[in-house]
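Dear all,

This email documents one entry for the complex benchmark we are building for the journal club exercise. For each entry we list the sequence lines for every component of the assembly. Then comes the predicted three-dimensional structure of the complex as a token string, followed by one or two observations. Please use this as the template for your own entries, and keep the labels exactly as they appear.
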Amino acid sequence: MIVQMHGVEKRYGSAVALSGADLAVPDGAVMGIIGPNGAGKTTSMLIMSTLLSRDAGMVSVAGYDPATNPASVRRILGYMPDFFGVYEGLNAVEYLDFFASVQGIRPEARPAVVRSLLDLVGLTHKSSADVNTLSRGMKQRLSLARALVHDPQILVLDEPASGLDPRARFELRELIAELARMGKTVVISSHILSELQDISSHLAVVDRGRVMAQGSLAEIRSAMTSQVRITVRTRDEMIDEADGLLRAEPGVGELRTERGTLRFVFDGDDEASGRLLARLVAAELPVFEWRVETAGLEELFLKITEGAA
Amino acid sequence: MINPLASRELLTRFRNTRSSWFVSVWLLSAAGIGYLTYLAARETARSFFQFQGVGGGVALASAAMGGFMFEALAFLLLTGILFIVPAIAALGIVSERERLTLQLLQVSQLGPVQIVMGKLVSALAYMLLLIAAVAPIMAVPLFIGGVTLREVLSVLGMLIAITIMVGAIGTWTSARARSVRGAVGAAYVWVFVLVVVTGLASIGEVFLGQDERSGFFPADGREIYTLLPNPYLALVSAVEEPLSSSDLQGSFFFGPSTPFAVVNELLVRRQVGDPFMFMDQGFVAEPFAGDAFDDPFGQGARELPQRRGPVWVRSLLIYTIVTALALWRASVLVSAPASGSRRLRLPRKESADAAA
């Protein structure tokens, strides 16, 4: 695990931000952190990025404690907050060159670094544009380039897609996928659950200062629920027969019929759903479509955070 | 290696057309004020020598004029520094916080000391440019007479020391504040303390330290500590001693620094008579110093007290300590990770988000 948090606690006065949070990010993973407002996502990211100290617990980033060895953590970690810090009067090249200089990159190496980063984020054509004039999506991509300027092993991205239009969101998603292919470990938070579902290899659901569930999407799904949604399409005139047969099967619930289509929730694993299909076929019901849908991230998120304010 | 933060600040500051306008206005003002002080000095010298009937000749009048001009320019420059430096320095860190770039610096390889020094250097570089720009005007009295190169350099040196201290204070208030207005306001409060509060406090200290029986001050030979940090006094002190021994001794010329010159003498001496009975003491000349201080009431028999070292040495020591403390505190305030008791200092609108 390249990032580990164990029993981390953090208070802001009387408000509890983190209450025994445990998080483990595997090397090379794209870890999506989801949770409602006030859950502790940003606090977790600030702590692992060396910007905030914890009150209790253990944190390790590539073996370094961010509280006691922040310089080592900063060498291998790139942080992108949920805002874009702008310096007036700098163009994109100068902006990245400045952040390359504060990251200790030698002057002679900076032009090549800046060029390659602008190329990576698709902003080469905006090299000489004042950063203030860039669109929000471009600023986010430039911000990502800034976080990458010292070629960090780990990227911490706090709500990178917030406020972006669909096109910019797509481009950012592609960029993060490219970074994952490059072997970077990415920790990303978002309120846009579908975004995380598409790009994350792992997920952590944070709520009320605790990590409620974490792991790969499949692991979380199996841990949280064994239910699947099944859609069956058959002949209109045989719908009643199919309905009767399915209602008699254990694990079938919430059955609805609609012009040759049956939809229901089935509580069982892949083998059990396979056996169910075999029963329909054995009853000589023509099955034109058999679609099994696992629970979506949104559904899981709502289930996990059930009862939150 | 140049601090990257300072070089970036200077790049953007001097690329800005406002800066070139400001420098131009500053220079024109300095030249205008220099000329006006020259006229004022000429008139004052003329009327004084007519009044005294000294007829000391052109050389003496010219020297007095040069001294007056130099003194007035030095005081105006110091006043300009005390108005401009707090504002520039106090903008440094808090403006990074307001434009949401401070966190980006904190997670970089720059340490807190480098961040603070980068901001201080960029603020001071601008002010030092303004001082350097008016240095030739300050040197004009050299050609008129009455001022030595050593005095010009002493004044410039003291101005730089004061600039650094006020810049450090501004940087500290900037690191503390969450808004630009708060940072600049706090910086001006500290300048007010340095200039006005020290002056008022010193009056109280004089009264408290006066020997009731003899009327001598101070009763136990102690210093007026409250006035030592005063920048105007430090500036006067920086040139007072050389001037006292100049060829002009014996002349009498009232200038802006006269009250400070009196106080300076008061601080240098271990014991003097009634502090409000001094004759006027000039910045340019120290005419009746011997009579006024050594034998204020014509008693003649009192044993001369031992003199202390010049005030500017003690002032510089105080400035060094204040500068070091301010920069140290500023570094602590911008260091990350922010500890539990010291919450992450974000602009107000960001604070709520950070808690999320």
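Observations: Residues 241-252, 274-305, 347-356 of chain B have pLDDT under 50 and may be disordered. Residues 194 and 230 of chain B are 5 Å apart (CA to CA).
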